[in-house]
TrEMBL record, chain A:
One of its GO terms (molecular function) is monoatomic cation transmembrane transporter activity. It holds the Pfam family MNHE. Keywords: Cell membrane, Membrane, Transmembrane, Transmembrane helix. This is Sodium:proton antiporter. The lineage of its organism: Bacteria, Bacillati, Actinomycetota, Actinomycetes, Micrococcales. Belongs to the CPA3 antiporters (TC 2.A.63) subunit E family. InterPro entries: Cation_antiport_E. The chain crosses the membrane at residues 12-29, 35-57. It is a multi-pass membrane protein. GO terms for cellular component: plasma membrane. It is found in: Cell membrane. It comes from the Bacteria. The keyword Transmembrane applies.
Automatic annotation (TrEMBL), chain B:
One of its GO terms (molecular function) is sodium:proton antiporter activity. Residues 84-108 have a biased composition (Basic and acidic residues). InterPro entries: MrpF/PhaF-like. The chain crosses the membrane at residues 33-53, 60-81. Signal peptide: none annotated. It is a multi-pass membrane protein. It comes from Cellulomonas aerilata. PANTHER family: NA(+)/H(+) ANTIPORTER SUBUNIT F1, NA(+)_H(+) ANTIPORTER SUBUNIT F. One of its GO terms (cellular component) is plasma membrane. This is PH regulation protein F. It is found in: Cell membrane. Coiled coil: none annotated. Keywords: Cell membrane, Membrane, Transmembrane, Transmembrane helix, Transport.
UniProtKB/TrEMBL annotation, chain C:
Pfam families: PhaG_MnhG_YufB. The chain crosses the membrane at residues 12-33, 70-92. Belongs to the CPA3 antiporters (TC 2.A.63) subunit G family. The keyword Repeat does not apply. This is Na+/H+ antiporter subunit G. GO terms for molecular function: sodium:proton antiporter activity. PANTHER family: ANTIPORTER SUBUNIT MNHG2-RELATED. Keywords: Membrane, Transmembrane, Transmembrane helix.
Length: 193, 128, 136
């Protein structure tokens, strides 16, 4: 608890404001001036009444990597959902395992995102997250021996890599040991500051 | 469409019944929570199915509300249950209740015989 | 003619989505009853449900095809995806901490091993844990 930077500033968080406004407009179902204004007011009231500590993101959004993250996630969810569904009908009970995966980045935001995505993909659920060491402990349904465990570990790390490539800054990528840009990405030498 | 909706409704009803079975059987509070989660989601799917069948939109706010607050119950119970000792939260069977009752009556009778110094504490401590 | 056939296609797709969603919900129900321990049941409960619900919502959207209600369906899916991992994590953690994981069904358990190591490092014995995560 002492790690939280509680209410450091009452600064307005524009992303939160925007997201809450979008939710409001979607709930009303039509984009009109009145809806957007009312949504802004409600969002402002919510973020003033229940302030959250600011998220130290410091990253940037890469659209291509984002699309890759979302696409791969959708495929994973569909495939794994049916696998778990089939598993429910097998006579043999599943061989589960609890594995610990040490993530490479140390940011809370990416830890949370990775944990959330891993929890949404069927067959793995995060039972414990250790913030200080950046370790996720997952319960994996139906692993097949040691190689299955290694595969599950690799899946989590790949998930984290996709998250980092989608949202982290170059410095954070380098710190996580993922500095090398993908071959398809244009290499821009940073000569000038 | 009607046939498909009927098949879906049967499947969803079966899912709901299975969830209720687990909620009844579930050895711990958390198992019941999970089962009720399934029940809630099945309910959401049912409302969606009905809306798809009759092409109505007025029940969609129900879906929004359920999807927003459906997890509150699970989280609350999980908060409380994280201190639950194993074996607690189990609904006793009829025989167990009968046995406990008999033991308690026995204890009361023994306590009467021993002038109030009976071992009443040790007997009904099962549901302490 | 074109309009009619498009709506027919949409109806067929909607029927397929609804069927898929209902099948996944049914599988979740079966899993919840059949799986041997709490965490396995949770896999079956929370996750195929998300895809099942999304499929039902897509089917519903294909039936409705228009109107502001579609955006509400998007919201339902987003809310479900945001909230269900929270519930799964809380229940899973509580279950693990209170020893509702059947250790004999696990292939490996690195969390208990790490906890034991941390406890030894802190100078406590294994009984120092008030709610033993591992049953002996």
């Amino acid at each position: 608890m002492s790690l939280h930077a509680r209410r450091r500033r009452a600064a307005v968080q524009w992303p939160t404001l925007g997201w809450l406004t979008v939710v409001w407009v979607l709930l009303w179902g039509e984009v009109s001036v009145g809806n957007v204004l009312a949504g802004l007011l409600v969002a402002l009231a919510v973020s003033v009444a229940t302030p959250l500590p600011p998220i130290a993101a410091g990253g940037r959004v890469r659209p291509v990597a984002c699309a890759r993250l979302v696409g791969r996630f959708a495929v994973d969810v569909v495939v794994a959902s049916f696998q778990v569904g089939v598993q429910a009908f097998r006579p043999r009970p599943p061989q589960s395992a609890v594995i610990g995966v040490r993530l490479r980045s140390s940011s809370d935001l990416y830890l949370t995102l990775t944990a959330e995505l891993c929890s949404l993909v069927p067959g793995s659920v995060v039972v414990e997250a250790h913030r200080l060491t950046g370790t996720l402990y997952l319960h994996v349904l139906d692993v097949d021996g040691p190689e299955g465990i290694e595969a599950a570990r690799r899946r989590v790390l790949e998930q984290e890599e996709r998250v980092l490539r989608a949202f982290a800054s170059d410095a954070q990528l380098a710190a996580a040991g993922l500095g090398a840009p993908r071959p398809s990405a244009p290499v821009t030498p940073e000569v000038h500051a | 469409m009607t046939a498909v909706v009927l098949v879906c409704a049967v499947l969803l009803a079966a899912a709901a019944i299975l969830a209720v079975v687990r909620a009844e059987r579930g050895p711990s509070m958390l198992d019941r929570t999970v089962a009720l989660d399934v029940l809630t989601t099945t309910l959401v799917a049912f409302v969606g199915l009905e809306a798809a069948w009759s092409r109505r939109t007025d029940t969609i706010p129900v879906l929004v509300a359920l999807s927003l607050v459906g997890f509150v119950g699970s989280v609350t119970i999980a908060r409380f249950a994280s201190r639950e000792p194993p074996g607690e939260g189990r609904v006793r069977t009829r025989e167990e209740i009968a046995r406990d009752e008999a033991a308690r009556e026995e204890a009361v009778r023994a306590a009467g015989g021993l002038d109030g110094t009976g071992p009443a504490d040790g007997v009904d401590g099962g549901r302490g | 003619m074109g309009v009619v056939s498009w709506s027919a296609v949409a109806d067929v797709l909607a029927a397929l989505c609804l069927l898929g969603g209902a099948l996944l919900a049914f599988a979740a129900g079966v899993g919840v009853v059949r799986f041997p321990d709490l965490l396995a049941r949770m896999h079956s409960a929370t996750k195929p449900q998300v895809l099942g619900l999304v499929l039902v919502l897509i089917g519903l959207a294909l039936r409705l095809r228009s109107g502001p209600a579609l955006w509400m369906l998007v919201l339902v899916a987003v809310f479900q995806m945001l909230t269900s991992p929270v519930a799964a994590h809380m229940v899973g953690r509580a279950g693990y901490r209170t020893g509702k994981v059947r250790q004999e069904l696990l292939v490996v358990d690195e969390l208990t091993a790490d906890q034991d190591a941390a406890r030894r490092a802190a100078g406590l014995d294994a009984d120092g844990d008030p709610h033993g995560a591992h049953r002996s």
